[in-house]
Amino acid sequence: MDAATEIDLDRLKGMSILLAEDNVTNQLVATQMLETLGAEVDIAADGAIALERLRERTYDVLLIDIEMPRVSGLDVIRAIRADEGPLSDALVIALTAYAMQEHREKITGVGADGLIAKPITSIKQFGVDILSLLDGRAEKTSAGAAPAPGAVIERMIYESLAASIGDDAMPELLVRIESDLQTARTDISEAGANADLDLMARASHILISVAGTVGAARLQRQSERLNRLAEEQDADAAATLAEDALPELDNVIAFIASERKARTV
Asked: What does DSSP assign to residue 152?
């Protein structure tokens, strides 16, 4: 029995969905499908409007097109994951016509829960894809694999990275990631102690990327805030946040070290 027959599409009835998509034809197709399945759809015609909608209300599912004007889909997802409130834990599904592995890695790296490739041609498959990602996240959480907000690693993102890289190359990648994290820790500690905002900006910029790659969502959000404070030349606030972020960074380093050792035994 395939996924389309196993999943009850009636579960989409009454579900609130934000569709961030700039192409009018794609808006019409996706909205028609979703409303036929019983979902309630709000449309945002670009990334800036999507962020406005998200400040106004909450949604069960966020469908975010990656290529949008004003604010790109990747930047919208980054903003969602950087939010200090419940929004950071929203289910985010990227919509993209570019589904090659390098694009998938970039999309999961910024914090998307998954992606649906365009064009969307099957209403049943569209509903199945949304519910599968929703169920996959719930299963990870109930099994303890995906953490609650504030925990160390989003396992779905980390496991997607591991699957993409492969067992042979993953140990070497973990060595490099651990080295980058250790360097960032040294630099951030030094920058905080010496009020070196240029060093803080460089180190936090690197940390945003590395943390996002491995699924360290909370550390990524802290790093993004730290980077903004450094760019704004707010030395006191940056030093305080850096001190708060170091324990989380240590936890991520410990996780990566443990994974590296497990793969090199």
From this structure: S
